[in-house]
Amino acid sequence: MVVKQLESVFLKLQEELPRILNRKIERKSSRPRWSMVIDLTRCVGCYSCQVSCKMENGVPYEYFRTHVEIIERGTYPNVRRVFLPRLCNHCDNPSCVPVCPVGATYKREDGIVVVDYDRCIGCGYCVQACPYGARYPNPETGTVDKCDYCLHKLEDDDVPACVANCMGGARIFGDLNDPESPVSLILASKSVATLKPETGNEPKVYYIGLEEAVRVAPGEAIVVNPKVGGVVRV
Amino acid sequence: MSSLVWDALIAVYPFFSGIAAGAYITSTLPVLFKRDELKEVSLLALLISWATLIASPVPLLLHLGSPWRAGNIFLFPQASSPMALFGYFWTVFLVLATISIIVYNWFYSAPWFKSLSTVLAGIGVIVAILFSGYIGFIFGSNKAVELWYNPIIPISFILSAILSGLALVAILYVVVWRLSRMEVNKAALNTMGRIVWWILLLEVAFVGVEILVRTYMQTAGWRILHNILMEQLGLSYFGVQLILGGIIPLIVLSSKRATSSAGLMSIMSLLILIGVFAYRWNLVIGGQLLLEVSPYIYTTTTYTVALVGHGSIFWISAIFVLWALLMSLALVVFSNWRMGVKTYG
Q1: Which residues contact A193 (CB under 8 A, 6 or more apart)?
Q2: Is residue B3 part of a domain?
Q3: Closest Cα in chain B, distance from residue A1 (Å)
Q4: A71–B84: do the CB atoms touch at under 8 Å?
Q5: Residue B1 domain flag
């Protein structure tokens, strides 16, 4: 029995390992549109995405380009924890872009919303306009900063640091214009949702299992980020 | 949490820009609306507007993460951004105010004075309204912040701008005229008092309707907003903005005796100014006290102004001192206001 179980684990590993170890992106379309899927059923809340992002991009203390929210729900003994990784949603209709007074933030053709650090004046308007709280004023540079899918790595055909370091394989990155990309395959086969679709921003970060994670019943007691947040009764 | 993305400095900016716009509009009342009794305060109002306009970008500059790149707003303005309009509106407004002061101060006896002052006043009023309205639009159009996302805010900003401009002109009219041993014209005070009363009535009505509608609608964010308005901002919202700066002046200034009294008008105008500042504060700071800890899940945070450092009481005081110095300098350099009503006609 145990041997059979071990065998199935090894077989699964054999199947998954090439995908897990493969950190390179296969560029099949000439005009890629980068996107990410986050499978909440796979996220274990290890923070490796958060830590690796901070290390890769030199994100200052107390600020994050991506972070994992921990939501504790229910009343003892019926309790559970939900992990919700968050980052810039690289929206198709981003509200941060038109508000920038100097045009320092813009959406590239490949779908990535970036900041021109040489032009940004650090007014913070885009920080206020983003409904996802994905931007922060960087005190070290005097500009606004945010996730850019590790653009420097992407140019070398490497996946973003958070994707490469996700131990549960919960973050999947790929090209929406390539029907064979991992992202496209998931979007074609699984039920996904985006955060706050009602804002009209058309976010391009998709979640599997989102509805269960974020929808809170009226009167339900939850704790968000237990170390920093308090009990919120919705 | 002791720091917000937009701190106290950003609350000072709309307060200044509102006064600049309101004081300019006050200066145009004799020309555009034939309020002859206000002729003697025209230049004073213009000088207040001009000095406040020069001081207004200072809190913005101090707030920027990269103030040395502030020129980018003139070099690379993005038309879709209401904030980019600042560069255009501020420059045009400053040029207009400067020309108006020069004309009012030195060319009042020229044959073309009346026609030129009418043209300047007409264009100036539009620019002044746009100048205060665009800031309201920045807040009112921001769908990411529950307290700000409100189409009434741009209109309410324009009304409170006129209100604060008129109030400051009324105060300085009494103070400067008394210090210069000149007689305060009660008819001028009364006219300013009547206009202030009507605008205040509209402003209080707007705020009242907003609270009523939001309370009735009970939207998702309302319960937290309710917490911010009732508890965190309680004193500054209901106590200072609504009662001290709204209801009390509204009641007192309803009497003609009060609007004709230099003492009462000054005190009520001061209360109105405090109320308008509280409005700016409650909007800018209050909006950010609603902290989204997770999608659809909100909590509240707190904010305290530091004594020193970025956005601190020290810097805010320094800005107000600079503003007072600028106004004093303007009154000394362009001293024709001393000639009062005899000059303009």
Answers
A1: A206, A207, A210, A211
A2: no
A3: 43
A4: no
A5: no
Residue B80 to residue A99, Cβ atoms within 8 A: yes
B294–A71 C-beta distance less than 8 A? yes
- The residues with which A114 forms a beta bridge, in sequence order, are A106
ipTM of the complex: 0.89
What is the pTM (predicted TM-score) of this model? Answer: 0.88
Structural domain count of chain B: 1
The CATH number assigned to the domain holding B24 equals 1.20.1630.10
Q: Classify domain A23-92+148-233 by CATH number.
A: 3.30.70.20
CA distances from A151 to A58, A98, A111, A157 (A): 14, 22, 12, 10
Mutation target among B69, B226, B292, B296 for the A interface, most CBs of A within 10 A: B69
SS3 B110: coil
**B250 vs B159: CA distance, rounded Å:** 15
In a domain, B2, yes or no: no
Residues of A with CB under 8 A from a CB of B: 69, 71, 84, 95, 98-104, 119-125, 127-133, 137-139, 141-144, 195-196, 199, 214-216, 222, 224-225, 229-230, 232, 234
Q: What is the pLDDT along chain B (345 residues), one digit of tens a residue?
A: 447 899 999 999 999 999 999 999 999 999 888 888 888 898 899 999 999 999 999 999 999 999 999 999 999 999 999 999 888 899 999 999 999 988 888 888 888 888 898 999 999 999 999 999 999 999 999 988 888 888 889 999 999 999 999 999 999 999 999 998 888 889 999 999 999 999 999 999 988 888 888 888 877 667 777 878 887 888 899 899 999 999 999 999 998 888 888 999 999 999 999 999 999 999 999 988 877 767 667 767 788 888 988 888 999 999 999 999 999 999 988 877 766 555 554
